[in-house]
Each structure stands twice: as C-alpha cells, then as structure tokens.
Amino acid sequence: MKPRRLLALLLLAPLLAGADKPRLVPDISARSVQIRYSFNGAQLLLFGAILYPGGRIPRQPADVVVVLRGPVQPILVREKQKIAGIWMNADSNRFSSAPSFYAVASSRPIGELVDPLTAAIYELGLNYLQLSPSGGALPDKEKRFEAGLLELRSRQGLYNQDPHGVEISEGVLYRARITIPSQVPVGTYTAETFLIADGKVTAAATRDIAINKSGFERNVALAARRHSFFYGLAAVLLSLGLGWAAAEVFRRRGG
To answer: What is the pTM of this model?
Structure first.
C-alpha cells in the first residue's frame, strides 16, 4: 500500500468508525435575541434532523432531549424566617456557579430515558444540575438551599422542565419550543441536543445563541458596567430629584 493512501486511511479512520452511528443536524429559529424596552419575552424553536446510518430508521426510534443553558454566575441565596413577627434574613448560602437560565425539554420524561448517573453527567433535568455550592455548609443545609434556588428560579421562569416538550416526526425530524421570559439575563447561551437510545447518549450537538440588550437599554447597561461609580451617583441624584419634584407638586396642591 502506498504511503499516501495509508496516511489518508489513517486520517479518515475516525470518521469511518463513526459512520455507523446516528448523527444530529440541529438548528435554531434565531441565533441572536435583542432585548429592547418593549421586550416581553420570546419563544425559540429548536429543531433539526436525525441522520441514521444508511437512512434506516430503527424499530425503536431514539429519543431527543434539548437543553438551553444561560451563562453561569455566582449567586447568594438568602433564607427568610419570621422572627418576633417580622420577616427577616436568617441564613444564607453561596453558590459559586449556577446557570442563569436553564430549560430542558424531552420527548419522554428524563427518568424513562437514562439512569440517574447519566442524567447527572449530562445535567439532564433540574434535579441533576451542578449548582456548585461554595462549601462549608452541612449537606442538609446545602440541599435545602439548592431546593430553594430551584424553586425561586422556576417561579421566575428562569428554570423550566418539559417532559413532553420535544415532538419527533417520522422518527427523524424533531422540534421543541422554549420560552424565554422578559427578565432573562444577557450573554451567550448554549443550545444542546442529545440523542438517546437504550439508555445511552448516542449523539450530541450544540449551537450558541447571543442574547443582548440593544438601543437605550444597552447604553445604560454598558454605562453601569464601565462607570459603576458615576452610574450609582447619577441614580442617587435622579432619585433625589424625583423625590423633591414629587414633594414640590404635593406642596403646591396642598397650598
């Protein structure tokens, strides 16, 4: 065998070895979402196709799970308790990194697709998110605050799980709709698609989505980040000015 042909076969070996596995071809309805003053949420369509080897669909078609994940951020969770008839912060726990947004949709409930270990490895489902507590707290306390964080962000619409949110047509085309709330954090989001068969992840693909502010909101956000001192000073002066103006209006009406 000629050296060049042998080299070509060696280079193509990984591709040929993977040719007997299904492949995902994912896409998104929008690669960029712009947040303006009138933004009241959006809906993203995650769709694509499953390419089976030789175009042969197996008797038991695979399932699909899609995950939309926002940038991670540190977060401090406080717990309020009623003390002497007054609600006040009684305890807190810090998480070094938690996704600012997380939504997962699947063609069937996650528990019917994979075992807990696989779900934890790929973070499939709210119960398997790696929230990275800062440490130092007792396990019971960490679990209590993790549950509190999940509940809080679920109520805010920032964490969501839909066990029947993926529709698969003819065994090869899939689609899922994920709602983005109006208060969604900005940043680079990752849309992950997993193909699951016989309890295993057989293929995966990712796409990035940019969510940014535009117009006046973008300028205000940039000013707050780049000139935090002057932004804070301007906010205080504006509050004082509005308070003085309101007091003056009421004083004249009263007089």
So the answer is: 0.76
